[in-house]
Amino acid sequence: MKYKACLFDLDGVLVDTAIYHFQAWKNLGKQFGYELTVEQNEQLKGVSRVESLNKILAWANYSATHEQKAAWLTEKNEEYLRLISNMNPSEILPGVLEFLQQIKDLGYKIALGSASKNAEIILEKTGLLPWFDLIIDGNKVSKSKPDPEVFLKGAEGLGLAPDACIVFEDAQAGVEAAKAGNMKAVGIGEALTLSLADKIIPNFVGVKAVELLQF
Ligand code: BG6
Ligand code: MG
User: Fold this and answer.
1) From ligand 1's centre to the CA of 165, what distance in Å?
2) Which of 48, 146, 187, 210 could be a cystine partner for 194, CB 3.0 to 4.6 Å?
3) CATH node for 5-16+89-212
4) Three-state secondary structure call for residue 187
5) CA-CA distance, 178 to 26, in Å (whole number)?
6) How far apart are CA 169 and CA 184, in angstroms?
């Protein structure tokens, strides 16, 4: 088997938290009279909390003080934590559990490569935690996707070469990170936004791992 591990992004790939991030940023933007669009939100996917705020402030042409930014980051995360507080296994995206079972049976290692500092809480609440051999999240990296750091640390932690890894991503920045790390990338979502991916699927429903993981 040429490929030995599957590295998964979390938000928007395994669980539908992308909608909660969007909601929390949208509400925050309203405080400085800014209405975040769906297209702009696409560019925030996979991007760290701090960098997301910086992007929104730049779009809004708003120069905030350091203190203001720190307060808004806390506020955004508090709202996000409220939104995810009742998450449960029903919020695992369709087909994900079946796909994880297939790759486990095929002998692939399974790791998380997420920008989120809240990843472990979400994995716990949804019952996904036991599937993972390794978790690299926003607390363990210093560079945000599209930098490949999160996935390279994943490969290293599993004791594998980057080119033995396959990344699953819903974000443009995440697919770029995988490619920059010399890994295969499977895009989950729309071909238009994920054109750099080696393969693109709309979701995991009915996906046959043996077929998908042929490159
Ligand atoms: C990524 C999300 O997974 O995590 C981004 O796609 C988010 O939208 C980033 O900004 C950081 O998440 P958190 O939970 O640390 O604010
Ligand atoms: Mg994502």
Assistant:
1) 22
2) 187
3) 3.40.50.1000
4) strand
5) 28
6) 11
Residue pair 75/180 in contact (Cβ under 8 Å)? The answer is no
Task: Report the C-alpha gap between 93 and 76 in whole angstroms.
Answer: 24
User: In 3-state terms, what secondary structure has residue 185?
Assistant: strand
What pLDDT sits at residue 163?
98
Which residue type, as a one-letter code, is found at position 162?
P
- Torsion angle of the four alpha carbons 63, 66, 68, 72, in this order, in degrees rounded to the nearest 10: 100
Q: What does the pLDDT read at residue 1?
A: 81
Alpha-carbon gap, residue 212 to 89, rounded angstroms = 25
**Fold (CATH) for 18-84:** DNA polymerase; domain 1 (1.10.150)
> Is the whole model's pTM more than 0.85, yes or no?
yes
**Which residues are in the CB-under-5-Å shell of ion ligand 2?**
9, 11-12, 170-171
> Which pLDDT does position 94 carry in this prediction?
98
pLDDT digits (tens, 9 = 90+) for 125-149: 999 999 999 999 999 999 999 999 9
Residue ID of nearest Cα to ligand 1 atom 11: 116
DSSP label at 171? Answer: S
**Closest ligand 1 atom, residue 77 Cα:** 16
**Does 11 participate in catalysis according to the annotation?**
yes
Give the distance (Å) from ligand 2 centre to CA of residue 10. 6
Q: Which residues of the chain have pLDDT under 50?
A: none
Catalytic residue check, 198 = no
> Domain coordinates of the chain in residue numbers?
5-16+89-212, 18-84
